Amino acid sequence: MRKASAALGTALFLVVVSGSASVLVPWWLTGGWRAGHWWPPLRLFGLLPLAAGAAVILDAFARFALEGLGTPAPVAPPTRLVVSGPYRYLRNPIYVAVVAVLTGQGLLLARPVLFAYAACAWVVSWAFVRWYEEPGLVRRFGAEYERYRRAVPAWWPRHRAWRDAG
């Protein structure tokens, strides 16, 4: 896939899938972004995971298109294994970042329903990665992915960036 096609597909996936999961569903669950009444500094603390998660999502999506020459969508996966940027710290930065965004929204809006939604999103992500994504990556990238999988944790970031010695 060419970079332009990968970028367009990635942008479309970002808006439709990630936008639905992290904007439309929370909007629906909160009745139109209605906020609760929690201690204001605690609510403002929600901006940290929200902003950090959004930055990681955008960075990781860009890497899929520009380095992987593909998209995060299973129908047009990357042709190259992406192991740079946030992928040097953990294997699933997009899923972790989405959970961070949802958790940040839960704090910012003081809405516990968003914490429950974040937990459900993590469980669904874990199952998808375990039973679909990882077997597919092993088939497509073989030893390269196995080396990466042994060195980089799936869900909790490394303290130092991984540098491929292979």
Helix/strand layout:
Blueprint: H1 3-29, H2 40-45, H3 47-66, H4 93-109, H5 112-151
Helix pairs in contact: 1-3, 1-4, 3-4, 4-5
Ends: how far apart?
25 Å
Give a count of the beta strands, DSSP E runs of length 2 or more: 0
Whole-angstrom Rg: 17 Å
Q: Note the run of SSEs as H and E.
A: HHHHH
| Class computed from helices, strands and strand pairing | mainly alpha
**General shape:** globular
Helicity level, as a percent range? 55-70%
Enumerate how many helices there are, as a single number.
5
Average pLDDT, all residues: 94
What's the CATH C level? Answer: Mainly Alpha
Count of domain modules: 1
Could you list the spans in which at least 5 consecutive residues all have pLDDT below 50? Answer: none
Second CATH tier, the architecture: Up-down Bundle
CATH topology: Four Helix Bundle (Hemerythrin (Met), subunit A)
Give the biggest beta sheet: none
Beta-strand proportion? under 5%
Description:
The protein has 166 residues and is mostly helical. It has a single domain (3-151), classed as Four Helix Bundle (Hemerythrin (Met), subunit A) (Up-down Bundle), CATH 1.20.120.1630. Helices cover 66% and strands 0% of the residues. The chain is built from five helices and no strands. It has helices at residues 3-29, 40-45, 47-66, 93-109, 112-151. Helix 1 runs parallel beside helix 4 and helix 3 (47-66) packs antiparallel against helix 4. It is globular and about 50 Å long. The mean pLDDT is 94.
